[in-house]
Amino acid sequence: MLPPTAMSAAPTSPDYAPVPMTDSDFGSYTQSWFLESFLELADDLQEARDNGKRFAVMWELDGCPYCRETHLLNFAIPQVTDFIRKNFEIVQLDVKGAREVVDFNGTTMSERKLAKQNQVRFTPTIQFFPETIEELKGKTGKATEVARIPGYLRPFHFLTYFQFVQEKAYTQGNFHKYLKTRVADLNTSGKGVPAW
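^ that's the sequence the OP posted. Answer follows.
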């Protein structure tokens, strides 16, 4: 494990920037810009809304190699991180964690129990939620989310998924259709898909 002040091991290029790493409460990497949370999800969603952003939960596990890759590669690319920081608030949770979390309905449970209720089976998993608490009324578990990244995605796909949610494209179709259109548009414009 890298020390708390270790820097990203991403390749050197204009598309990559060092990312200061810190250890989270449960031993995984974390980002300094992740939302400082009392783990009351309704309040976190409202804070994101008040800041003009969408709300997401990033589920991780200590020792997860793909979680590490997300932090050291994906979050080291300024285009990725800048877009996410501008448009999203992220709370980091541990799939096996014991910290108490208050879900959107006011029920208190451990991170582990919430992960099970939300059917989180892979790490990292990112759950994206509706823009308002009202949209969550009467919903529990996986039914609360509008989209999900179930595992590791390479940086371009990772960024594109966040764009998919920010644009609310999930209301018009699935991510694969959105991605296919995005790739075609980039190729048509002559830009092509970024190498990262």
